[in-house]
Design goal:
single chain; 255 residues; alpha/beta; Glycerol-3-phosphate (1)-acyltransferase; 15% strand
Length: 255
């Protein structure tokens, strides 16, 4: 696979213009979605699915606005293995918008509770019906995951999550948290790793630098979870993480 190549960053003026365009895409899409969600408040699963459509526009539009092109490798696996638990690596603020821009229809997100503080996007997410968890509250997180598992089973939904829990500081793969195994055991959905190549080059973590270019979204083969058990939790986490260790470029691997 040809990995994304280095490019020259945008200048300050173009960077801010692109940030402004991206925010405009998010704001406009969210405003329309707000109105639709108000009408659909009693129907949470429908809000999730409608939210997926809005997210495709919001995610891909904002990603394109900041100068990033997406190349999806083996995208047919999204539809072939739906619903599933889609697991992506987390290296940049751009990851969130890429994720919502490619997530299959009927996929519920699971993010940290603090996302509601993000102007416009956070409020749209709150109204969307997706789940938020409080990372500092372990007992509350487990309870919230149990709630999500019951919800997706009943409604036939998938889940998108980033098991590193927070963005990598240097673009390299960080340790995975164990929540993905708890969700897999509770739902018995297959785990589909989604490898994001080169995102840290486009918008580095804790930076306002934008660099145009391509990001590869590689959808890996699913990992069955029918025989997963809590007494082998570390083994299951390692199995999923190994797919990323085998597939990501050297610059994204742990030191």
């Amino acid at each position: 696979m040809n990995e994304p190549t280095a490019q020259t960053p945008f200048g300050p003026i173009e960077t801010w213009l692109r940030f402004g365009l991206g925010f405009a895409v998010i704001a406009l899409t969210s405003a329309v979605y707000f109105l639709i969600c108000v009408l659909l408040i009693p129907f949470r699963a429908t809000r999730v699915r409608v939210g997926n459509v809005a997210s495709w526009i919001m995610g891909r539009g904002s990603v394109r606005a900041v100068g990033t092109r997406l190349r999806i490798v083996h995208g047919e696996r999204f539809d072939r293995h739906r619903p599933a638990i889609y697991v992506g690596n987390h290296t940049s603020s751009l990851d969130t918008f890429i994720s919502i821009g490619v997530a299959p229809l009927g996929t519920a997100g699971i993010v940290k509770a603090e996302v509601v503080r993000v102007p416009v996007f956070g409020q749209a997410y709150w109204l969307s019906g997706h789940l938020r968890i409080q990372r500092a509250d372990r007992a509350g997180s487990i309870e919230a995951m149990a709630e999500l598992a019951d919800f997706v089973r009943r409604k036939g939904l998938g889940i998108w999550m980033m098991p590193e829990g927070t963005r990598s500081k240097d673009g390299r793969l960080a340790p995975f948290k164990k929540g993905l195994v708890h969700l897999a055991i509770a739902t018995r959905l297959p785990v589909v790793p989604v490898l994001l190549h080169g995102v840290q080059r486009r918008w580095p973590n804790k930076s306002l630098t934008l660099t145009p270019g391509e990001v590869i979204v590689e959808v890996a083969e699913p990992i069955p979870t029918d025989d997963w058990s809590l007494d082998r939790i570390d083994e299951h986490v390692a199995q999923v993480r190994q797919v990323f260790l085998d597939g990501l470029p050297l610059e994204q691997l742990p030191l």
